[in-house]
Amino acid sequence: MKTGVCVVCKKEFLRERLRRPVDRTTCGVVCRNILIATTRTSESYDAVRGAGNPNWNGGVLHSHGYTYLLMPEHPRAFKKGNVGYVKRADLVLAEKIGRPLADDEIAHHKNYNRADDSPENLVLMTEKEHSLMHLQDASRARWGDKLHENIVQNASPSYVGSLNEELDNQEFNEASNE
Fold first, then answer.
1. What local confidence, expressed as pLDDT, does residue 67 receive?
2. CA-to-CA distance for 156 and 141, rounded, in angstroms?
3. What is the pTM of this model?
4. What angle (nearest 5°) sits at the alpha carbon of residue 141, between those of residues 140 and 146?
5. Are 90 and 99 in contact, with CB atoms under 8 Å apart?
6. Are 37 and 28 in contact (CB under 8 A)?
7. Is residue 67 within 8 Å of residue 61, measured between CB atoms?
8. Domain ranges of the chain
9. Which residue(s) pair with 66 in the sheet?
10. CB neighbour list of residue 24: distance below 8 Å, 6 or more residues apart
11. How far is Cα 58 from Cα 88, in angstroms, rounded to an integer?
């Protein structure tokens, strides 16, 4: 059996157990990744980022029906996951209303088509209003209008009051945006 010495951890390992025993200089995946990370130059890393990557699509990302644009310096850019991407709907709505969206504000698509980011299709809502609206839609879809109204009638007064207040605010916002 042929053995080798790992260039990272200096431990002896069996070359026969590896797929390509001749060109392997590390004992396994962990040491190989350490070797790659320590020997990679910033130039070689930058060559596969952005326009140098064969999968580069110009900074446009499509995920879950939404379109995202690469804008790393934007305040609403993702800090985790798809770092630097901003929802196109948020940008269009911010331009429509003439100010940046607050942290608790979102762009709602009137026609429920996430790909349609036209200014006429977007409505400014708080996260609370948006969640409540979709909860009502789901309730109506699941139980029907009659049962939904029955649930609202038998709910606690504080819930009904908050529900009516949210609906009034929503109708006011839609009227003022038109």
1. 95
2. 22
3. 0.57
4. 40
5. no
6. no
7. yes
8. 3-39
9. 63
10. 4, 15, 18
11. 14
Look at 28 and 171; give whichever has higher pLDDT: 28
Which residue do the tokens 């916002």 mark? 173
| SS3 (DSSP) at 83 | coil
Query: What one-letter code names the amino acid at 102?
Result: A
Read off the pLDDT of each residue in 97-121 and give the average, rounded to a whole number.
Answer: 94
More confident residue, 77 or 166: 77
Using alpha carbons only, give the angle 176, 173, 69 rounded to the nearest 5 degrees: 100
For residue 95, report the phi and psi dihedrals to the nearest 5 degrees.
-70, -40
23 vs 41: which has the higher pLDDT: 41
- The CA distance from 176 to 111, in Å, is 18
Of the two residues 52 and 30, the one the predictor is more confident about is 30
Q: What is the rounded distance in angstroms from the CA atom of residue 59 to the CA atom of residue 51?
A: 9
* Confidence grade of residue 164 (pLDDT, cut at 50, 70, 90): low
First-to-last alpha carbon distance for the chain, in angstroms, is 79
Cβ neighbours for 97, distance < 8 A, ≥ 6 positions apart: 124
Structure-block tokens of residue 140: 């109506």
